[in-house]
């Protein structure tokens, strides 16, 4: 249930950040910075939907190993999104460019989250992977 709540929070904040970027931030920053913020919004949205799919999948009866691996993947998606998108938001909204040092680590965390889905699929068993 926690991942479902986190998915909803990420989804809501993705919409709020997109609206703020388009209607409030765009006039305060240059075009390159705006593109960076919109990239953060896009990643934020995609990973909110991904987390929602994971959370919904976990509502069905699954083997405990699969639940653990999907939960781990979900946690990595949350952490990666906070680090990647959050650092870009902070850099341009609060004019704190030094936090951009976190952005690549957030991207790596998101990649590991996606790779962990492969690991989760393997826990589902060979017949499930082929379907």
Automatic annotation (TrEMBL):
Keywords: Membrane, Transmembrane, Transmembrane helix
Keyword Transmembrane helix belongs to the record: yes
Pfam families in UniProt: DUF423 (PF04241)
Main location (coarse class): membrane
Alphabetized InterPro entries for the sequence: DUF423
TM region positions: 45-62, 74-93, 105-125
Topology of this chain in the membrane: Multi-pass membrane protein
Locations listed in the record: Membrane
Record-stated family: Belongs to the UPF0382 family.
Name of this chain's protein: DUF423 domain-containing protein
Organism: Allohahella marinimesophila
